[in-house]
Amino acid sequence: MTTTKLLTQHQIEDARRLRELFNAARAHDRSLTQEKLAFICGWKTQGAVSQYFLGKIPLNLEALLRFSKALHTSPDAISPTLAELLPYQDVGYTEKEKDAPAETDLMQIRESTVDFGAGLNPEIIYQVVHDSTPVAYRLTWLREHNITPQNAKRLRVNGESMEPFLFNSDTVLVNLNETEVNDGKVYAFRYKNELRIKRLFKKLDGTLLLRSDNPRFIDEEISPDQAKQHITIIGRVRGKFGSGGL
């Protein structure tokens, strides 16, 4: 008679986070199934994915890195406990890092606060929150999305307007290098003296449409003149992390 080893609370939480990240990814790509995820991860059948999702077997480092790459998220977003066992880089890209194996090619990014100066084109001031918990990102994934360490900022979500995609107190990874509006994508931007995170659409006449994922919030239209005066695109949201809504 065989017995199944009980999972620890950390391992149970890992399975829950993994399921939630998969469901979030599937909400934006309906073609993503467990079978497709298994294929991307390099497993022959869907069974392995199901075992990890249901918590029947605990995540290990190899599985963690496969899921992290397939779901375009950081290992820390799936398993903070296992992610602590992974090596990481905390500086910019070097030649050594560019040639590093994908399994160890990680960089940790801490949260930053953002403030705005005065005037029509206010300076955007970032301050790293040194006591914040860093999140690990694969350098190879960052490079694929044209995100350099200097252009990567983690900012905190404030409010409920982007639920269920983003919850209050979640953090997002923002690529400062992407400031051209790509319709329907999520951006962090300055609106007057506030940090906003919304889906943006740009009309032919230059009008900006600010859209929330939460249906309780109505769309906002900003004329070209108002946008020029009151809006500065900070960058495109490329990742998210947090337990908001739980």
Q: In words, what does this structure look like?
A:
There is one protein chain. The protein is of the alpha+beta class and 246 residues long. It has two domains: 1-86, Orthogonal Bundle (434 Repressor (Amino-terminal Domain)), CATH 1.10.260; 100-246, Umud Fragment, subunit A, CATH 2.10.109.10. It is built from nine helices and eleven strands. It has helices at 9-28, 34-41, 47-53, 61-70, 75-78, 80-83, 95-98, 139-144, 224-230, and strands at 106-109, 112-116, 124-128, 135-138, 152-156, 171-175, 186-191, 194-202, 208-211, 220-222, 231-241. The strands form three sheets. A seven-stranded antiparallel β-sheet has the order 5-6-11-7-8-9-10. Helix 2 (34-41) crosses helix 3. The longest helix has 20 residues, at 9-28. It is globular, with a radius of gyration of 19 Å.
Structure characteristics:
two-stranded antiparallel ribbon, alpha+beta, 7-stranded antiparallel β-sheet, 246 residues, 434 Repressor (Amino-terminal Domain), 9 helices, single chain, globular, Umud Fragment, subunit A
